[in-house]
Amino acid sequence: MCVLLINKENKDNFLSSCFICTVLFIQVFLVGSVLNAQAQDVITKITIGYISQTAELPPNLSNLETPPENEGIAGGRISIDDNNTTGQFLKQNFILEHVHIGKDDNALTILGQQISKGIHFFALNVPAKTLLKMADAVKGKNVLLLNAGAPDDRLRGPDCRNNVMHIVPSRGMYADALAQFLVRKRWRNWFLVTGQRDRDKLFASAVRKSAKKFGAKIAAEKIWDFGADARRTAQAEVPAFTQGVDYDILIIADELGIFGEYIMFRSWDPRLVAGTQGLTPSTWHKTHEQWGSAQLQSRFLKRFKRYMTALDYQVWASIRALGEAATRTGSGDFGKIETYLKTDEFKLAGFKGLPLNFRKWNWQLRQPILLIHPAALVSVSPQQGFLHQRTTLDTLGLDDKESRCVLK
Amino acid sequence: MMRWLISIFVAGASFLCAATAAQAFKVYVTNEKDNTVTIINSETLKVEKTFEVGQRPRGIIISKDGKHLLVCASDDDTVQVFDIKTLKLLHSLPSGPDPELFILHPSGNPLYIANEDDNLITIVDLEAKKILGEVPVGVEPEGMGISPDGKVLVNTSETTNMAHFIDTKTFKITDNVLVDPRPRVAEFTADGSQVWVSSEIGGSVAIIDPKTHKIIKKITFYVPGVPREAMQPVGVRITKDGSIAFIALGPANRVAVVDAKTFEVKKYLLVGQRVWQLAFTPDEKYLFSTNGVSNDVSVIDVKNLKVIKSIVTGRFPWGVVIASE
Q1: Which residues on neighbouring strands pair with residue A94, listed in sequence order?
Q2: Cβ atoms A61, A231 nearer than 8 A
Q3: For an interface test with B, which of A77, A84, A85, A92 has the most B Cβ atoms less than 10 Å from its Cβ?
Q4: One digit per residue, pLDDT tens: chain A, 408 residues?
Q5: CA distances from A406 to A206, A223, A271, A402 (A)
Q6: Which residue in the set B158, B159, B162 is minimally distant from A89, CB to CB?
Q7: Which residue among A302, A327, A393 sits closest to B178, beta carbon to beta carbon?
Q8: Core-most of A241, B95, B160, B214, by most CB within 10 Å?
Q9: β-bridge pairing B214-220 and B204-209
Q10: Interface touch B158/A353, C-beta < 8 Å
C-alpha cells in the first residue's frame, strides 16, 4: 500500500505518507470489522409462513376459467418484497415460506413442522374447519394466525379465537356491503336463489340477516336443484324458475359458480342479478384504481403477467399487516408485533382510502368492500348515509354488541 | 427638462401600475381524468383556457426562467414540456415509468422525478434532456421536497412509509425517517430549518429537523362531526416568512391553517371535496386548492383566512402551479 504512495520527486514525504497510509489502513480495517459485526448483529430476520389448502374447486366445466395456479401466493410474494423494501432501510429482513396442504397431508403436522423452523406468524388460506384445528393446536404458544381465506361468520362469532385475526371479510360483511348499495338504490325486494352446498346456505343466511338489518325484503326464496351443468338447460329452466314473483333484483348464493352465471338474461322478468354472481362484493378487482391501488395493480401485473385477484390481495394484506407491525415496533419480537397489531395505533394502508385496523371484539379487519361486476367497479361500501357512532366501517358485519365472540 | 419629464412619466406609470393593482398570475391545474390543464386568471378568478396534455396528468411545475410548463403525464410514462406562451408541446423528457411528482433544483436544473411504479427517483438534466442518475427508494415514491440550498432532497415513499433524505451531489440516501402511513408530500420551510411531511392514512404531519433527522413534532387534526379517518393530509404549503402553514386534508374537505411557530391548528377552512394539492400566488395573496371529487379549485384569501371562491375545472383536478409573472 505504501509503495503506491511513493512519489519520485518527493521522497522526503515517503515516510510520513507511509505512516498516514498505515494509520488509515488500520482504521479502515477496524471500522470495517466493526461495521461487519454490527450488520451481522443488527439485521432482524422475520419469517412469515403462508399455508394454503384447497377445499373444493369449481366444477371442471371445460370452457370455464380456472383460478391461476399461483393465486394467493403471488400476492404474498409482492407483499414480502414490499416489506423488504422498507426492511432494507431498517435492517429487517422478511422471508416468506409457503406450504400447500395436499389431499393426503395432515394440516397439523405441517403447521408443527413450520413452527419448529422458528416461524411464529402465518397467513392462512384454509377452510374454517382446518383453521379452527390449527388455532386450537397452537393455543398458548407464540403463534399468530392471519386468516386470508375463510369468510365464515362463526369464526368471528361463537368460534372466534384470540390467536386468529381475520384479514378476509366475513360473509356478513360482504352481504351488508351489497345490501347497503341495493337499499340506497331502492331495490328492496329480493328474490333469493340458493345453491345446494353448505357454503351457499351460509351466504344465503348472511343475505337474510342483511335484509333485516337494512330494511330490505326477501320477496321469494328458491333452492336451485337442477343438474350440475346448467349451460344448455338454463334457457328452458330459468324463465319458469323465476316466474310469478314480484321482486326488484335476484340475489344468487352460489359460491362455487355452479349455476349463478346462467341466471342473468334468462329470468322471466328483466331483472338484475347480484350476490355471488352479477354484482358481487369483493376485497379486490382488476378495475379498482382508486386510492393508489393502480400502483399495486401495475406492480402485480408486471411481475405475474396477470391481474391481481381478491385472494392475492388478502394474502398481500396479511403479510403487509405483519410487516407494518414489525416496522413500527422496530422489532421481530412475537409479543411486540402481536400487541401492536391489536392496538388502535395499527394502521394498514390497504388501498381503500382509509386506514384499516382490527375490531377488538373479534379481531376482524375493518375495511371498505368493493362492489364489482366482471368488467367494472360499481361502488364501494359503506354507502353514504349509513352511519355509525364509531366508524362507518362498523356498519359492515357484526358489531360489538351483536357479536357472540368471547376471545380466549 | 427632459430628465424631469421622464421621471414624472416613470413615477406616473408606476403609480398607475400600483393602482391597477394586483398582478394577475396564471394558475395551471392538471385534470387527472380529462388529460387537460386548466388555466385560471388569479385576479378575475376565471378560467381562461383549457388545453390538452398527455394521459393522467398529475405533478406540474414551471421552469425557473418561466418559459416552460412541465407536466407529469403518468400514463404516458413521460414528462411533457410545453411552451408557456404558445402552449405547444416542445418535447418530452425521459422520466422513467409512471412519473407522479417532481421538483426542480433551486438553480433551475436538474429535475428530480418520483417514479411511483419503479421505486426510483430519476434525476434528469433539463438542457441535455438526459437521465443523470437514479436513486432506489421505498415502495411508491411520491412526495418531493428540496432544501433551499439545493443540497438535500427529501422523497416520501407511500407504502414504505418513509421520508428518504438524499444527498443531491452523490445521489445517495443519507437517512430514512419512518413516518406515519402513506406519506404524500414533503415541503421545506423557506429558511430550510424544517421539512414538513404529510401522512395521508396516518392522518398526521411530521415536522422533521433536516439536520438531526429527528421528528420535532407531529400535528394531528380534529373537526367535530368529521370522522377521524377522513383527516387525510396531503398538500402542505408554508408562507415564506414561516408564520402560517396550510395543510390540505383530502376527504375531510378542509384545509387546516396551522401556526407554523407553535404548530397549533388555528382554523379549518371548508373547501371542495377531496382536497389534495395547494399553491400560493407568488405574492401570497391567494392559495389555490385542487378538489378532486368536486371537480373545482377553491381560492383562499391568505390574509383573511377565508375561502372566497370555487372555480370549476376539468375532472379530478390534481396538481396546481402558479406562474410568477
Answers
A1: A46
A2: yes
A3: A85
A4: 333 333 444 444 444 444 444 444 444 444 433 444 444 458 999 999 999 998 777 766 655 677 899 999 999 999 999 999 989 888 999 999 999 999 889 999 999 999 999 999 999 999 999 999 999 999 999 999 999 999 999 999 999 999 999 999 999 999 999 999 999 999 999 999 999 999 999 999 999 999 999 999 999 999 998 766 676 677 788 999 999 999 999 999 999 888 898 899 999 999 999 999 999 999 999 999 999 899 899 999 999 999 999 999 999 999 999 999 999 999 999 999 999 999 999 999 999 999 999 999 999 999 999 999 999 999 999 999 999 988 999 999 999 999 999 998
A5: 21, 34, 42, 12
A6: B162
A7: A327
A8: B160
A9: antiparallel
A10: no
Set of cell numbers at residue B301: 384569501
Alpha helices in chain B (DSSP H): 2-19
Cβ-contact B76, B89 below 8 angstroms: no
Q: What is the pTM of this model?
A: 0.84
C-alpha span between A111 and A53 (Å, rounded): 12
Q: Give the torsion sign (CA, A342, A347, A350, A354).
A: positive
A391 touches chain B (CB under 8 A): yes
> ipTM score of the complex?
0.76
Q: How far apart are CA A173 and CA A149, in angstroms?
A: 14
The identity of residue A345, as a single letter, is: E
Cell of A72: 394467493
Question: Taking Cα atoms as reference points, which of A39, A88, A37, A45 lies closest to residue B173?
Answer: A88
Q: What is the 3-state secondary structure (H, E, C) of A5-57?
A: HCCCCCCCHHHHHHHHHHHHHHHHHHHHHHHHHHHHHHCEEEEEEEEECCCCC
**A282-309 b/e (C-beta count within 10 Å ≥ 16 → b):** bbbbbebeebbbbbbbbbbeeebeeebb
C-alpha cell at B171: 445521489
For B161, the closest chain A residue by CA position comes to A86
**Whats the size of chain A, residue-wise?**
408
Q: Which residues of B touch A354 (CB under 8 A)?
A: 201, 229-230
In angstroms, rounded to a whole number, what is the distance separating the alpha carbons of residues A36 and A111?
35
* Distance of alpha carbon B1 from alpha carbon A166, whole angstroms: 89
- Å from A349 to nearest chain B CA? 6
